[in-house]
Amino acid sequence: GHKKAPMTFTPEAVKPTGPAGPPSKVLERALKLYDAEDYANASIELNKVIEGQSGDDEANKQRAEFFMGKTLFNMKYYSASLSYFDKIVQKGPNHRYYQKTLQWLASLSRFLPESAGVLEKIGKYTKADLDQPALEPVRDELYYLLGRYHYQKGNFKDAIDLFSSVPEKSEFYPKAKF
């Protein structure tokens, strides 16, 4: 009998190169359901993509992971949502949605207890990551949250730098000042 060729790559190691290929019909349907706010059915279709049943490429699987996090958030399954966003954070900047996940982490921090570990996930990002234009609406909150992360870790210099980046007009200014 002839030997099977060894697997030469692990999905984790695949870096997204260039744009994603066309999404499968399953992913297209999932995204349409998401846009229609039919989150229950969107989650079923997204799961097929994430599980590799739809034949989508890695880039589109990453898109499905990100949308699954958003779908579960919209269904108010905050812990489950966090676990999907956590997968993205673990993959780091190689994940196409690494930067976009930050604003969802900010939102989750409002709904989950501190023990859920949202701060630790935000702690993987740098201050430079927070300066991207898309994060403008939640930037003050993220400065504050990342500051808290560093404060808890005893990195007081970083914490002070982040706390003092929160502008006076922000609702997070009093907390940061404190």
Briefly, what is this?
By secondary structure, this protein is mostly helical.
Question: What sort of overall outline do the alpha carbons produce when their principal axes are compared?
Answer: elongated
- Rounded to an integer in angstroms, the radius of gyration calculated over CA atoms is 19 Å
Order of helices and strands: HHHHHHHHHH
* H/I helix tally: 10
What's the count of strands?
0
Strand content: under 5%
The largest β sheet comes out as: none
Low-confidence stretches: 3-17
Distance between the termini: 71 Å
Q: How much is the average pLDDT?
A: 90
Fraction of residues in H or I helices: 55-70%
Estimated structural class: mainly alpha
General description of the model:
The chain contains 10 helices and no strands. The chain is mostly helical and about 180 residues long. It is elongated, with a radius of gyration of 19 Å. The relative contact order is 0.08. The N terminus is likely disordered.
Give the secondary structure arrangement, pairings included.
Elements: H1 25-35, H2 39-50, H3 58-74, H4 78-91, H5 98-111, H6 118-122, H7 127-130, H8 139-152, H9 156-163, H10 173-177
Descriptive tags:
178 residues; mainly alpha; disordered N terminus
